[in-house]
Amino acid sequence: VSCHSNQCLLCSSTYSNSVQPDLLPSHVTHFISFFYIPRHFIPPMSTPTKRRLMKDLKDLENTKNRTVFAAPLQDDILTWCALIIGPKDTPFEDATFSMTMSFDESYPCTPPTCKFISKVYHPNIYANGDLCLDILTNRWSPTFNVMTVLMSVQSMLNDPNVQSPANLEAANLFDNDRKCYVRRVRDCVEKSWYDLDSEIEKNEND
Known about the structure:
By secondary structure, the protein is α+β, with helices and mostly antiparallel strands. 35% of the residues lie in helices and 13% in strands.
């Protein structure tokens, strides 16, 4: 599933979600203009999981946090697309990483499956985009929600667990050659701008 499918509510609109442009770099505000969630989107509320996901969606709409964004596909509330902006004053600052979140009917008793679409150079992210993050496995709680996951992933970017690496090279550089690690991270940050811009342009032309 592409984070920029023409069925994704995050990418199907061109209305800004109340972002203040003066607080973010111009390339980021351009991307975020695609993250307005239409108010008329009301999927069938046939299960507790779907009702919970709609609550999570409302919570996201109402949050003042403007560094993480997520919404479901228009025809599938169990499949979400997300955008995570790299945390300020870190090597990941201004990154625009796209990610998918897949839920099943056991949510929130079980966590979603999260996978980066963007290439992210990080000790706890596999080459295929899978994440090694404890709250998505053994430390999951039914009290967590979509915002919890997004904020945890964002926090993990600058606070890796090198004791449980998914990318051995990145973990080794983080421990032993921080300058080289930062260069590799900045390379993937810059690539994330162009990748996301290309995906949005492709979506506009579909």
